[in-house]
Amino acid sequence: MTTNPSTIAPLDSTRVAVIEQFGGTITPLDPLGAEVRGIDLSAQDAPPPEVIEALEQEMANRGFLVFKNDTPLEADDFLRASCWWGGKELHSTHGVHPATPKGNRHIFRLSNDQRHGIPGVGPQWHNDGSFNPDTFSHSGYHIIRPAEKGGGTYFAHQGAAYDALPADRQAYWSRLASVNSSSGVVHPVVHEHPISKRKCIWLHLGMTGAVIEKLPDEEAFRLLTADELKRLCHEYNDILNAGLENGYAAEFEYQENDCVFIDNLAVAHRAAPGAHLPAEEQGLRIMHRSTVRGTQDLAPGFGLPLHVDINGPSPLDEGVWQGGGIGFRWEDGIPMQN
Fold first, then answer.
1. Which three-class secondary structure state does DSSP give residue 36?
2. With contact defined as beta carbons under 8 Å apart, do 204 and 126 qualify?
3. In contact, 188 and 180? CB cutoff 8 Å
4. Running DSSP on this structure, what letter comes out for residue 184?
5. How far apart are CA 231 and CA 320, in angstroms?
6. How far is it, in rounded angstroms, from Cα 211 to Cα 226?
7. What sign results for the dihedral spanned by CA atoms 111, 290, 248, 158?
8. Which is it for strands 64-67 and 34-37: parallel, antiparallel or unpaired?
């Protein structure tokens, strides 16, 4: 892996001015993300379109925005603010925990105590909604109760991670497409972000059932073997983890009333280990997640279909072809709950 300086863009002064004119402030976080203050997520009316656009552009470039709130945010307000972004409507595919306020189907309630929420979710690097053709454009994370001893979320900038790959791996990964192990949806391993126009990497380390390679200089395809897919998953895991040292990934630790919105095509995320430690050891942690409808299909190139029957016979020669809710196990014993 290379150790080039981070390529995450600084805040744009013109967009900062638009946000400040509305009465808000935006401050870069180190090394990615930005903190927003002075914009009321509980307001019935959304900010003007130019403010939303400025915020969404910064989210695309820096990965995520943290809205700091002095008072608790109601669930309905959180969900309404989630619809400021992307497809501007909720797209919810998760189960509903019994402790979810009013049984709202748009709230995915997570906790390190199964009495309060669903435990153990997202231990490996992933993007939300990889089983959908369009994926989710954005996700929201509203901390209801941060654990006393911490337990946040790791975020990694997938454009900067692509830049950190050696040139030969960039070329190789750009010929790959992943197949979701649950739905059979096919996504490119390298895509162009619709807003930032950066090349970004994309692979779900808990829900990939196959990877198809477009052969160089041939109109033909093959499946990665088990050894090749293990190598790819380890490389993907390693390049995102390397961002923690090389300035394009970080652990974000939630504070009371924080509301984080992520650009789901710009950053991968995974739960920090402390997020899954028992409440008796770490303190009780409760979080609400929202997911927003995508704006376009994350479609593979090279004429590949957007969907294949991952539970049927392989359409190609020998290689990994594994259906089921849990994907290819690329390392023995690792937790892969999604």
1. strand
2. yes
3. no
4. -
5. 13
6. 10
7. positive
8. parallel
pLDDT digits (tens, 9 = 90+) for 266-282: 999 999 999 999 999 99
- The answer to whether the beta carbons of residues 85 and 103 sit under 8 Å apart is no
- Measured CA to CA, the distance from residue 297 to residue 283 in angstroms comes to 40
Q: What is the pLDDT of residues 76-128, one digit of tens each?
A: 999 999 999 999 999 999 899 999 999 999 999 999 999 999 999 989 999 99
Nearest to 286 by CA among 150, 154, 155, 147: 147
HSE of 284 in the Cβ direction (CA atoms, 13 Å)? 8
Q: In 3D, which of 221, 227, 217, 235 has the Cα closest to residue 162?
A: 235
What DSSP character marks residue 46? P
Residue 54 neighbours by CB under 8 Å, 6+ apart = 15, 16, 18, 19
Average per-residue pLDDT in the chain? 95
Structural contact between residues 183 and 304, judged by C-beta atoms closer than 8 angstroms = no
Q: What is the per-residue DSSP string for 54-113?
A: HHHHHHHHHSEEEE--SS---HHHHHHHHTTSTTSSB---S---TTSGGG-TT-EEEESS
Tokens of 260: 């984080």
Three-class SS state of 126: strand
Mean per-residue pLDDT, 246-261 = 96
Look at residue 180 and give its three-state secondary structure: strand
pLDDT tops 50 at residue 1 = no
Taking the C-alpha atoms of residue 334 and residue 336, their distance in angstroms, rounded to an integer, is 6
Kindly give the pairing relationship between strand 176-180 and strand 208-214: antiparallel
Long-range contacts formed by 214-218: CB under 8 A, 24+ apart:
214/175, 214/176, 214/177, 214/301, 214/302, 214/304, 215/175, 216/175
Distance CA 249, CA 152 (A): 13
If one counts every other C-beta atom within 10 angstroms of the C-beta of residue 49, the result is: 9
- Copy the structure tokens of residue 336: 């892969």
Under 8 Å between Cβ of 325 and 209: no
Dmax over CA atoms of the chain, in Å, equals 59
CA–CA dist 276, 94 (Å, integer): 19
Q: What is the DSSP letter of 11?
A: P
